[in-house]
Amino acid sequence: MNLAGLHSFNCPTEIVFGCNSIQKIPEIILKEGFKRVLIICDEGIENAQILDLVLEQVQKSGVECNVFSNVEANPSTTTIEAGMKVYESSKPDLLIGLGGGSPIDTAKAIGILATNGGSITDYEGIDKFRNQSLPLMAIPTTSGTASEVTVFTVITDPYNEYKLTVGGRKLAARWAIVDPELTLTLPPKLTASTGLDALVHAIESYTSKMAYPLSEVLALEAIRVISSNLRQAVFSGDNLIARSAMMYGSLVAGLAFNNTRLGNVHAMSHPLSAKFHVPHGIANSILLPHVMEYNLPSVPEKFIEIAKAMGEVHDTNKPIMFNANKAIEAVKKLAEDINIPINFSEYEIKEEDIFTMALDAMKSGNIQVNPRTTKIEDIKMLYKKTIKDAEIGTVLKA
Predict the structure, then answer these.
(1) 287 with 382: CB under 8 angstroms?
(2) Are residues 40 and 73 in the same domain?
(3) For 311, what's the count of Cα atoms within 13 Å in the CB-facing half-sphere?
(4) 264 and 204 in a common domain
């Protein structure tokens, strides 16, 4: 462990973690003197009556409250524009992002536009805006994206079929209310994909070129907790112990990658979501073992630590690469156990689409911090592996 370097840990968000933590909402609103609240969520949150639980807490503070619930998966610039119209008509002084990464990312984007103006596409990159976001409270209902504690928002530009990332400390939520009870009704399929997405965050953070001792400790803790609780959360959704552990693991992974960026998995998943509407968690989950196999020669020692964190026995009598490969085997077994697809065969992807996706992936800053130096030919090869067994030039369908 090298402690000689200079590092700065970034977490501008106040975190309230635990069951019934949503009861802190009125206390924060009253303490800060907010008068008007806009809750941003999706129809699933509304239908699951989670919105009602949060509205009940907001109403205890006696403030005016409006709701924008038209957020889709992989939120688009069009959705941000629609949300801004609701913002302009209601003039809130507090935003609440309620749901998975999509509603929270939408709330972040609206918060920046509320104080900086323009279009969200104007601010692609890091610290491209001047003013602090409108105050934002993030309340996650999945154990996956950790958007509640990160300084990034990812928005899809549907006209260019491109996912853009906007980042900066001034973008982050001021409060994260992390209540595991809000995840109890999450369906098994979403529990699986979002949970494995959280594992991707931890693994990519741990192996990132920007990793340092504090981020590594957090990432390994997240790997340990997620890998030992995800199966239980998927198959026993009412298991509050497993749900709480997953919420904690996702949060800790977010604290880690917020300081290290990610890697090739996330760089490659964005074009898949933007062009073919692959859910973010599914895209990351399918890509992970392929990218790990690619990265293995660059950081075998770290892969051994990942394997240990996932409960694999380290055999000192075996070669280093044998022990390192245990990490990939553990990830594949976990994905298989929770019914994650092994490739993108159910999506209409043509082989000629790979080059365009690779070009977009190479634009991501995550490529630069991936542990193994990556060229566009490498990305094309990795994409091809995820659609293996397909005949070249044919359309891949379920």
Answers:
(1) yes
(2) yes
(3) 10
(4) yes
When divided into structural domains, the chain yields a total of 2
Is-contact 123 77, C-beta < 8 A?
no
User: Per-residue DSSP letters for 166-205?
Assistant: EE-GGGS-SEEEE-GGGGTT--HHHHHHHHHHHHHHHHHH
H helix intervals, the chain? 25-32, 43-47, 50-59, 77-90, 101-116, 188-207, 213-227, 230-235, 240-257, 264-276, 280-295, 300-309, 320-337, 353-362, 366-369, 376-386
100: in domain: yes
Angle at CA of residue 27, ends 35 and 175, nearest 5°: 85
CATH number, domain with residue 201: 1.20.1090.10
Whether residue 199 sits in one domain with residue 79:
no
Of the listed ranges 56-70, 158-172, 307-321, 379-393, the least confidently predicted one is 379-393
pLDDT in tens, 48-101: 889 999 999 999 999 999 999 989 888 999 999 999 999 999 999 999 999 988
* AA identity, residue 313: V
* pTM, 2 dp: 0.90
What range defines the domain where residue 116 resides?
Answer: 14-183
- Of the three residues 157, 183, 209, the one that is the final residue of a domain is 183
DSSP 125: E
125 falls within a domain = yes
Residues 269 and 195 in one domain: yes
Residue 140, φ and ψ in degrees, nearest 5: -75, 145
